[in-house]
Amino acid sequence: MEIIGKRKIWFIISALIIIVGLGSLVMQGLNLGIDFTGGTLMEFTFDKEVTTGQIREVLAGFDLDKKSVVQNTGEMGILIRTVNLRQDEITEVQSAIKDKYSSAEMLRTEMVGPAIGSELKSKAYWALLIAAIAIVLYISYRFEFKFAIAALMALAHDVLIVIGSFSLVGEEVGSPFIAALLTVVGYSINDTIVIFDRIRETVKYRDKESFADLNNKAVLDTLPRSINTSMTTLVSILAILIFGGATIKPFMLALLIGILSGTYSSIFIASPVLVEIDAWKKRRNSKQTA
């Protein structure tokens, strides 16, 4: 099976997916949750099933039906995410829901100001940046700098696909999404390092085989491990995504997309990029010595 030799095909596939995602980001952006934009969150539980449409009818009386995101949390719960409300307005909404559904019980109310949302954005950027720097330093120390660059490009590939996918489907982006991104980064780099470690073990045979052939052999040797690990993880994620509540859905969806992308990038992006970097360095050295 030839993976490295067909690397341009894998690059084109990834480029098309990323371009679609970036196009969506430019056209419609991300559906930022109240963690980032500021707003009010209210969660209720009932003794019978209440639909999101019924809750929207109540919110319409306050002109909030089109300004709110209403989600089911399990069979008997409702989560309302809306614009910033004063305490008296929250009380009025609570009373209106209680009047229509006597069993309604408010589980929590959270208010996030724009200043806090801005601080969370800044911390999210710093978290991803620090993670990237730490990965570059670790891989450069354990392997070589070119391995770190290849791994970083694979991680950028995964992050862009997850962000672009969330923009396309319009799923809410909040603090759990950032946690999921960091989890995906850790999972993906672990898979990539396994392949890189295999390359390092076989590099002593380089006088017999080309660097591209060594990479292809390393990818094929670790392919069953990569697929089996990913499938086991994906089964658990799908189970939680299907049977879990609405609150955990964005986190699990980001993990699902990220692990699929991370498995793909570890096999079809990281090592092929490493081969391209090695070929570029050889061409540069040959020009310098010419």
From TrEMBL:
Function per UniProt: Part of the Sec protein translocase complex. Interacts with the SecYEG preprotein conducting channel. SecDF uses the proton motive force (PMF) to complete protein translocation after the ATP-dependent function of SecA.
Family: Belongs to the SecD/SecF family. SecF subfamily.
Transmembrane segments: 9-30, 124-141, 148-169, 175-196, 227-246, 252-275
GO terms, molecular function: protein-transporting ATPase activity
Subcellular location: Cell membrane
Any single GO CC term annotated in Swiss-Prot or TrEMBL for this entry: plasma membrane
Subunit field text: Forms a complex with SecD. Part of the essential Sec protein translocation apparatus which comprises SecA, SecYEG and auxiliary proteins SecDF. Other proteins may also be involved.
Gene Ontology annotations of biological process type: intracellular protein transmembrane transport; protein targeting; protein transport by the Sec complex
UniProt domain Protein export membrane protein SecD/SecF C-terminal: residue ranges: 93-277
Membrane topology: Multi-pass membrane protein
Entry keyword annotation includes Protein transport: yes
Protein name according to UniProt: Protein-export membrane protein SecF
Source organism (scientific name): Acetohalobium arabaticum (strain ATCC 49924 / DSM 5501 / Z-7288)
Keywords linked to the UniProt accession: Cell membrane, Membrane, Protein transport, Translocation, Transmembrane, Transmembrane helix, Transport
Pfam family, one: SecD_SecF_C
Stored Gene3D superfamilies: Multidrug efflux transporter AcrB transmembrane domain
